[in-house]
Amino acid sequence: MTEPLDPALGRARALTRRGLGISAVALLAFAAACGLALGFTPVEARQGLAQKIFYLHVPAAWCALLAFSLVGIASALYLWLHDRRLDLFAEASAEVGVMFSVVMLTTGPIWAKPIWGTWWTWDARLTLTLFLFFLFVGYLALRAAVHDPDERARFSAVLGIMGLVLVPFIHLSVYLFRTLHPQPVVLKPSAPSLPWEMLRTLLVSVAAFTLLYVGLVTARYGLALAQRARESGDAA
Amino acid sequence: MAEALRLALVIAAKDLRAELRSRTALVSATVFAALVLVIFYFSRDPTAVSAIVLAPSVLWVTFAFAAIVALNRAFTVEREHGAIDGLLLAPVPRGALFLGKYLANLAFVGAVQAVTLPLFVIFFNVDLGPALPGIVGTAALASVGFVAVGTVFSAMAVRTRFAELMLPVLLLPFMVWPVRWAVEITARLLDGRPLSEMLGWLRLLALYDVVFLTLCIMVFGAVVDE
């Protein structure tokens, strides 16, 4: 005997499937980026093969920042518009963002140890990303600890906005220190100083990661919608 | 505006009066701060590290922990007897309600700091000398910002499971920065450095205060309104 499927639940499931499909394509694109990085990109003169982690570390950092900014923006919009979908999106983005910040925080020290001679240093970007991770985890912990969905949405939106406002302060504070971290090589006022082959590989990898972010957030958002549909179905 | 301020002062006075009648939280928070100082004293090797080197960090870590303990109290009392519902039903704008709770918290945190500072001088045998007014001013400037954030977060944390654990997890990432800047300023004050060397940190503290106090007044309604 089959349950009659709620149309909202059906749509949510379709969205999750589409998200997983996009993620699969993104993983293939990332595999291609790896092939490009290992086979068709010159080895960096001073760092040798260790520099290859660049093509994993930088895109992960980019996606973590993207995820975090979107959580903050969705939070601000939620307090303004009170649309539950914004809250569900912020939740999805935060969860996927935690994953990317873990990738960033593990690849970073692995790269830093052979090149800088230390696993960790308290420079501007490391400190900032560590705190992004703390804020993400605090955000998810808060969500898990509030039972009422409406209250959860309001509380996490407040935290999301406060976190977004905190980021410039962290940036200002740590910028007063000297840094070991490389200066920007792509996004800077003059032309990128990265050689073209490396830039190409980086761009492919960033595109793959961004697609992975979109895919995973879509899938997670679909799950959240399905959960909501199931809860409201149970209530009815 | 004047009316909102008056209401805020009424709420703050109510909080402080309730606190002064029982004194439980104030005494516990102060004893807690004294214990943190003792732990710090015993966890250093006096022959290797002199007290004055550690002084700014010890002072500020103690202030930070004591403030968290103090802030946990703010809404627990309101929650226990459903008092918050009465407060929310009263015709008080949410901004004024926030200011009232905030001012009471600020007074409470200030009181704990006022007791901790002499204890710190005695336990660590640090001569504050001419740095004293500067340190008091820095403590006030730093507290204005993080107590605002703490007031909003403690209103949220009290409605979660594991409230006592949730507040530090949420608040510390926000508190680390003013505390850091205050440590930098305190170290320079104790060293007798000129004001120009502290100006950058002082500006950051002031900016943090203005931005977060404004933001907290704006978002507090979203925390308490059903």
Structural summary, described in words:
The complex is a heterodimer of chains A (236) and B (226). Chain A is mainly α. Chain A has a domain at 51-178 and 194-208. Helices cover 78% and strands 0% of the residues of chain A. Chain A has six helices and no strands. Chain A has helices spanning 7-39, 54-81, 84-116, 124-145, 149-175, 196-235. In chain A, helix 1 (7-39) packs antiparallel against helix 6. The mean pLDDT of chain A is 85. Chain B is globular and about 60 Å long. By secondary structure, chain B is mainly α. Chain B is 83% helix and 0% strand. The model of chain B has no long low-confidence stretch (mean pLDDT 89). Chain B contains eight helices and no strands. Chain B has helices spanning 2-22, 24-42, 51-80, 83-89, 94-124, 132-157, 163-190, 199-224. Chain B has one domain.
From the structure above, extract its key features.
heterodimer, A: 236 residues, mainly alpha, 6 helices, globular, B: 226 residues
**Helix/strand order of chain A:** HHHHHH
Strand content of chain B: under 5%
Unreliably modeled segments of chain B = none
Task: Report the principal-axis shape of chain A.
Answer: globular
| Rounded radius of gyration of chain B (Å) | 18 Å
Distance between the termini of chain A: 21 Å
Contiguous helical run count of chain B? 8
| Count of discrete structural domains of chain B | 1
- Chain-averaged pLDDT of chain A: 85
Q: Which regions of chain A contain 5 or more consecutive residues with pLDDT less than 50?
A: none
Please state roughly what percent of the residues of chain A sit in beta strands, choosing from under 5%, 5-15%, 15-25%, 25-35%, 35-45% or over 45%. under 5%
- Helix content estimate of chain B: over 70%
Question: What is the SS-derived class of chain A?
Answer: mainly alpha
**What's the β-strand tally of chain A?**
0
Kindly report the average pLDDT value of chain B: 89
Cα shape of chain B: globular
Separation, N- and C-terminal Cα atoms of chain B: 25 Å
Number of helices of chain A: 6
Main sheet attributes: strand count, strand direction, barrel closure of chain A: none
How many E strands of chain B? Answer: 0
